[in-house]
Amino acid sequence: MVKKFSVEGFDNFKAKAEELAKEGPLYVLFSGSKNEKGESWCPDCVVAYPIVQKCLEEVDDDSSFLYVEVGDRAFWKDPNCIFRTAPETRLNSVPTLMMWGSPRRLEEDKCADPGLVSMLFED
Questions:
Q1: CATH for 61
Q2: Helix, strand, or coil here: 86?
Q3: Which residues form the Thioredoxin domain (predicted)?
Q4: How far apart are CA 16 and CA 19, in angstroms?
Q5: pLDDT (0 to 100) of residue 109
Q6: Facing residues of 31 across strands?
Q7: Measured at the alpha carbon of residue 6, what is the angle toward residues 108 and 29, in degrees to the nearest 5?
Q8: What stretches in the chain show pLDDT beneath 50?
Q9: Spatial CA neighbour of 86 closest among 68, 112, 111
Q10: Within 10 A of 88 (CB to CB), how many other CB atoms are there?
Q11: Known catalytic residues?
């Protein structure tokens, strides 16, 4: 089973991604941060999360999955948000699912398409 990790914030993301990328394939899901009820403020993220989790069941054991909370809605909507501007991420939307270190990336409603998510996870 794929190893799963979760972080919040850019610095935590960057440190964990650097660590996990050394161990094998790394898949990253960027999502709006969760509220006190444990739900993301982003409705598309709420829909995509269980689909991504289900598709992860087919991923190789040597892979890692990193769930990244990008911050609250106001932080994310700022055009200068570090997740939007950093060369490592250059996010346009949440959710965004990517294979780290490759051009493979799904954004918004594509993250809720089991067929596309499964294809992204294929080696």
A1: 3.40.30.10
A2: coil
A3: 7-123
A4: 5
A5: 95
A6: 69
A7: 20
A8: none
A9: 68
A10: 14
A11: 42, 45
